[in-house]
């Protein structure tokens, strides 16, 4: 009974935090050159840490497009003080974890632990970021694993459609233009440990590094631990800026033939020129959600539920947190239903584009967007993630309090106007990946 009461008490604390103003409770300081954002919640004993620094693929050297990813993947493979096995043992002994992820723009980490174990986790985190071992044995093992992963993912039709779409929509040199899997495999094979070490020395450091801490934290004690463990660390480079991608001026179609697949994946869309927070961004986001977000979107309601043509379909704005992004519809069809499915998808797109959305649809979707956002703040990890995302997108922490009002203030005229202003169904790319009827391998 006591456990049940404690559970409900904890949930009440979390939910009330989600509905309260976040920014007044944030403590933001500069510690050892790092932007540290801390927020104490009422959840007992648990602490989540999140963070990022701008050392992603966009900063790869010109002669090898995978070095940033390899560096990020080497961070948890041992340090100059502890082996990989020793770090794993230390974390498992207290039920904690630290994970790293290297992306297009940033290297991110996530960690969680009990409040009493914050000093250990901070010390290990600093060690992994500052002094990875970069042993030849682990590097060779990583390269083999990375190549194996790329070979496996090439069998996934969803991946192939989206991957090809980025090369169709974005010019070479844009961070959202993905290097092909085959070229990545060649680059991984050619990568050297010296390149990895040089990248780490150049781009890793406290400058432009952000750490978020949320939960049952003693903020002064956390600050002291960060100051102690990151003292003397220098370096880091600023985020990379890139020019916007020009929109396409004509419809284009491309097929990635994959033999013996039971489905065909499509990605259908275009570059928007919009960055998160730009004028019209949230208007277009609301409109896009009405068209194709989840089971309440028009695409699922018609192409799947009424016509039975697809396993799944949706629309979204993509890849716009750091640069201008794109808009796309993604769907999966049985090969025999591919033509009918694409035709149905285009009909729904045309109706949405020509006629816009209704006031009732917009009001319901605004409630949904605000509600789902508040739910995402209702856990300690979700709160930490949202604080990090806000900072990454160039917003202040006050953005978490402002976002619901921004969504609620959207008008029907703004939303329907954004559709016409930023999209053109007559100039979109259509990528089909799978066993496409009538197509043959290149």
What's the SSE blueprint?
Elements: H1 2-19, E1 26-31, E2 34-40, E3 46-53, H2 67-74, H3 84-93, E4 97-102, E5 107-114, H4 118-130, H5 136-153, H6 157-169, H7 181-190, H8 193-203, E6 210-215, H9 219-230, E7 252-257, E8 264-271, H10 281-292, H11 298-306, E9 312-318, E10 326-333, H12 338-355, H13 359-376, H14 380-392, H15 399-408, H16 412-422, E11 429-434
Parallel strand pairs: 2-6, 7-11
Antiparallel strand pairs: 1-2, 3-5, 3-6, 4-5, 8-10, 8-11, 9-10
Kindly describe this structure:
- The chain is an alpha+beta fold and 442 residues long.
- The chain folds into 2 domains: 208 residues, Cytochrome Bc1 Complex, Chain A, domain 1 (2-Layer Sandwich), CATH 3.30.830.10; 183 residues, Cytochrome Bc1 Complex, Chain A, domain 1 (2-Layer Sandwich), CATH 3.30.830.
- The protein contains 16 helices and 11 strands.
- A 6-stranded mixed β-sheet has the order 1-2-6-3-5-4, sandwiched between helices. A 5-stranded mixed β-sheet has the order 7-11-8-10-9, sandwiched between helices.
- The longest helix has 18 residues.
- 41% of the residues are buried.
